[in-house]
């Protein structure tokens, strides 16, 4: 990742959005390759140094050592705990004790079903994760952070078992409560659900990021985050991402992509969601993940060019609906196609 791109991604905060991120990616495509300058060295009397060829074919080398012999004692890793449940599919990061990503799928039918109640659910450690690597309930106790769902419980009310599984700590990350997990982040989750009014199938990938910040003292970029628990066990992400795939429901049809990166910090409810919109490539660079490598370019659409990417704060629900004007070429969430 270039220093420029790193700086742009790290600059996403409650006060600054991602317009610059989009600009850096678009401007990069417009850069021209400088002409190659050739130098005639035919008159030189010194012989050119031989250029070694790497790697040499393994069959030409008979090593006296066997590094792979380590595997007789076990494979060190990293181990990605792929963990499917009724309502989620995730990969767990053993280093941070947080998920690397959690995927979900919502539809109008899945959201309209109401066969579960979260009052019957409770937070629980994930027994599928080895004990020495898993997040513990005690880690969150008196930490000052919420156990923040990556896939929200409200998206899995079609089954009590499915809803219960969203309370596994492998679906949680430490999140700031007031102003974020209980406010702006919840409004973003509601935005994702409202997308099913326009799209018959919506897939969402959510996860944590640990982004660098420029040190005001020496100007260097550094990654710094809190670790909660006693002893310290669970890392506190600096940011969270959501990558959205809104499908038109047709075989081989179009997929509207949207990506957002939000700081793990209080965010004012009047902050536009589009301030946190980033290219999918920006999330990939920051997370080391790939999200749409098999999606052909001709099927890709930009989500926020098709619908209004707008949150609705609960306390201003009706007023926000009335104020949301329709822009040319865009549909209001819930509008018939």
TrEMBL record:
Required cofactor(s): Mg(2+); Mn(2+)
Domain ENPP1-3/EXOG-like endonuclease/phosphodiesterase, first and last residues per copy: 89-298
Signal peptide range: 1-20
Cross-referenced CDD domains: NUC (cd00091)
Keyword Secreted: no
Top-level taxonomic group: Eukaryota
Record's subcellular location: Mitochondrion inner membrane
Binding site for Mg(2+): 181
Residue numbers spanned by region Disordered: 30-57
Residues forming the catalytic site: 149 (proton acceptor)
Designated name of the protein: Endonuclease
The organism of origin for this protein: Alectoria fallacina
């Amino acid at each position: 990742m270039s220093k420029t791109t790193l700086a742009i991604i790290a600059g996403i905060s409650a006060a600054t959005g991602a317009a610059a991120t989009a600009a850096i990616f678009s401007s990069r495509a417009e850069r021209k390759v400088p002409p190659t300058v050739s130098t005639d060295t035919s008159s030189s009397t010194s012989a050119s140094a031989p250029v070694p060829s790497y790697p040499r074919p393994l069959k030409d080398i008979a090593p006296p050592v066997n590094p792979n012999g380590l595997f007789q004692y076990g494979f060190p890793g990293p181990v990605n705990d792929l963990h499917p449940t009724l309502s989620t599919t995730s990969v767990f990061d053993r280093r941070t004790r947080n998920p690397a990503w959690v995927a979900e799928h919502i539809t109008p039918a899945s959201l309209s079903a109401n066969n579960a109640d979260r009052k019957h659910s409770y937070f629980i450690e994930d027994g599928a994760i080895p004990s020495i690597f898993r997040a513990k309930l005690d880690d969150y106790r008196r930490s000052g952070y919420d156990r923040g769902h990556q896939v929200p419980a409200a998206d899995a009310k079609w089954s009590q078992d499915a809803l219960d599984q969203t309370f596994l700590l492998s679906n949680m990350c430490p999140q700031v409560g007031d102003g974020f997990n209980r406010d702006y982040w919840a409004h973003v989750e509601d935005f994702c659900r409202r997308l099913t009014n326009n799209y018959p199938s919506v897939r969402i990938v959510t996860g944590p990021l640990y982004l660098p910040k420029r040190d005001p003292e020496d100007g260097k970029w550094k990654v710094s985050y809190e670790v909660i628990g006693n002893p310290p066990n669970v890392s506190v992400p600096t940011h969270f991402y959501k990558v959205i795939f809104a499908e038109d429901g047709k075989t081989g049809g179009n997929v509207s992509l949207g990506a957002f990166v939000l700081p793990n910090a209080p965010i004012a409810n009047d902050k536009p969601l589009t301030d946190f919109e980033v290219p999918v490539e920006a999330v990939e660079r920051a997370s080391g993940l790939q999200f749409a490598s098999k999606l052909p370019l001709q099927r890709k659409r930009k989500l926020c060019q098709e619908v209004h990417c707008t949150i609705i704060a609960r306390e201003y629900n009706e007023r926000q609906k009335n104020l949301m004007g329709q822009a040319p070429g865009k549909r209001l969430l819930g509008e018939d196609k």
